[in-house]
Design goal:
Elongation Factor Tu (Ef-tu), domain 3; mainly beta; 15% helix; OB fold (Dihydrolipoamide Acetyltransferase, E2P); conserved putative lor/sdh protein from methanococcus maripaludis s2 fold; elongated; six-stranded antiparallel barrel
Length: 302
C-alpha cells in the first residue's frame, strides 16, 4: 500500500512538469506576425530637377510722352485698359491756345493736339487720368506694355550656368500651383560681385497674361531616367548615415526578406532603386518595414 502511494505521488509530480515543458516549447516556436501594407515595384519615369526663384518683368515698356507743354483737354486712357496702336489716348492744348480760347474759340479748337498709342498692349502706368491738368513738354503721360514682352528674371549661381545653356526648356510654377512651359531667352554677361550669381532671362511659353513682379519657381531637368524601377519613399530603408539602403521584399511564404539596393534619382514622393535581385511587380513592404528583422512573418493589410 505504501509503495502504491509513492508511485501515485511520483506520477502526479512528473505529469505537470512535462505539461509545462511542452507548453513552453510551443510558445517558443510560435513566431509573432507583423501587420504591414505592401506595394508592387513600379516602372516609370523619374527626373532630377533643380529649381530657382524668379520674378516677372517687362523687357519693353512704351512710354507715351507729351510732345508739347500744355493742358490736357480730354483723356481716353484708363489704368489696365487694353489699347491698340494708333488709338487716341489724350488730347492736349498748348498754353498759348488756352490763353486765346476765349477770343478765338473756333480757331483754338483746331489747335488741339491728339496723342496716339504707339503699340498694342495695355496701360500699366497712368500718370494723367483727368482733363485740365498742365503737363510740361516731354512728361510721361502713361506706359504701355505687351504680354509678349514679358520675361522672367532669375539669379543663378555661376556653377549652374552651363546646365541652363544645355537645357533650355524649363517648367514655371505659379503661385496657384499651375505649371506653364518656358525656355531660356538670354543670359546676361555679368555676375553679381557679392552673390556670384548671373542673371538669366526666361520666356514663358503661354498666352496667359501674367502680372509684373510676380514671384515664380523655375525648374530645370538635370537628369531623367525612363523605365526605371520606382518605389514609394516610405518603402526605402536607410541606415543612420544614409549610405546603405534596402527594401523588405515579401516572399511566397509571407516573410519579409531584406534586399540591399542602390538608390538612384528621388523626389518628394518616389525613389529609383537599382538592384539585380529585384524586378518590376515584386511585392515589397510600403509601411511597417522600419526596424523589422529579416525573415519576419508578416500579414498584409489592405
Amino acid at each position: 500500500m505504501k509503495r502504491l502511494l509513492i508511485k501515485l505521488l511520483v506520477i502526479g509530480l512528473i505529469c505537470p512538469a512535462s505539461s509545462c515543458r511542452n507548453g513552453g516549447t510551443a510558445g517558443e516556436e510560435q513566431m509573432p506576425v507583423v501587420s504591414v501594407t505592401a506595394e508592387h515595384i513600379m516602372s516609370g519615369t523619374i527626373e532630377n530637377n533643380i529649381s530657382f526663384n524668379g520674378s516677372t518683368a517687362y523687357l519693353k515698356k512704351t512710354q507715351v510722352l507729351s510732345p508739347v507743354a500744355g493742358y490736357i483737354v480730354s483723356t481716353n486712357a484708363k489704368y489696365g485698359q487694353e489699347v491698340n496702336k494708333n488709338m487716341v489716348l489724350f488730347e492736349i492744348k498748348t498754353r498759348e491756345a488756352k490763353a486765346l480760347e476765349s477770343v478765338y474759340d473756333t480757331m483754338v479748337s483746331s489747335r488741339t493736339l491728339k496723342i496716339f498709342a504707339e503699340s498694342d498692349g495695355f496701360i500699366s502706368e497712368l500718370n494723367i487720368n483727368e482733363p485740365g491738368v498742365y503737363v510740361p513738354e516731354g512728361s510721361i503721360l502713361c506706359n504701355i506694355v505687351n504680354n509678349k514682352d514679358l520675361i522672367i528674371k532669375l539669379n543663378v549661381p555661376f556653377e549652374y550656368i552651363s546646365l541652363l545653356s544645355r537645357e533650355k526648356n524649363c517648367k514655371i510654377r505659379l503661385a496657384d500651383n499651375t505649371v506653364v512651359a518656358g525656355s531660356v531667352f538670354r543670359t546676361l554677361p555679368s555676375v553679381d560681385e557679392a552673390s556670384q550669381t548671373q542673371s538669366v532671362l526666361v520666356k514663358p511659353l503661354t498666352s496667359r497674361p501674367l502680372p509684373e513682379n510676380l514671384n515664380l519657381i523655375i525648374s530645370f531637368t538635370m537628369e531623367r531616367h525612363d523605365k526605371a524601377m520606382l518605389v514609394s519613399k516610405s518603402s526605402l530603408m536607410a541606415d543612420e548615415t544614409q549610405s546603405e539602403f534596402w527594401v523588405m521584399k515579401i516572399d511566397p511564404d509571407n516573410r519579409a526578406v531584406k534586399v540591399p539596393v542602390k538608390k538612384g534619382i528621388e523626389n518628394d514622393t518616389i525613389a529609383e532603386i537599382l538592384s539585380p535581385a529585384l524586378k518590376i511587380n515584386d511585392l515589397i513592404i510600403k509601411v511597417g518595414a522600419y526596424g523589422l528583422p529579416d525573415s519576419t512573418v508578416i500579414s498584409i493589410v489592405k
